Amino acid sequence: MLISHLHFCGDCEAAIALYEKAFDTKVDEIVRACDYDPEKQAGNRQISHANMKIHGQTVFLNDRVDFCNKNKSPDGAAHLIVQFQSVEELLACYEHFKESNTIIDPFVQTFYSALVGNFIDDFGVLWGFMAA
Fold it and tell me: Is residue 33 helix, strand or coil?
């Protein structure tokens, strides 16, 4: 099993909220720093670990600053590809991202996809959306 693990710079909670809406999913588990060591982490609400399913695949998320993509660029970043069943499903999901993202490749029709494009979201995650 291969699990994608996304690291955020303190924005994990906001990312989870966006991804829940965009991908019509719910987070399965959230562990905050203050949950596992209340004495050492008192008041630290950052997310140490969360997991959710995006299109049936488990994704881990956290606020681990030393791993996050601080400059929000694709340099050395992972690229997550989501394949939708239809253009309509793709566009409905992208609607949640389009207000604030950086387009890498605009959405176009190709010989292998009815619609495909790449963008970086507000949290520095590089997404590729394509329709089957």
Answer: helix
Position 74 pLDDT exceeds 60? no
- What is the DSSP annotation of 90-119? HHHHHTTTTTSEEEEEEEE--SS-SSEEEE
* Structural domains present in the chain: 1-68 (3.10.180.10), 70-132 (3.10.180.10)
The position carrying tokens 């176009």 is 108
Residue 14, classed as helix, strand or coil, is: helix
Q: Are 117 and 129 in contact (CB under 8 A)?
A: yes
User: Residue 78: helix, strand or coil by DSSP?
Assistant: coil
Contact in structure between 44 and 62 (CB atoms under 8 Å): no
Q: How far is the C-alpha of 101 from the C-alpha of 125, rounded, in Å?
A: 10
pTM of the model: 0.78
The encoded tokens of residue 129 equal 């959306």
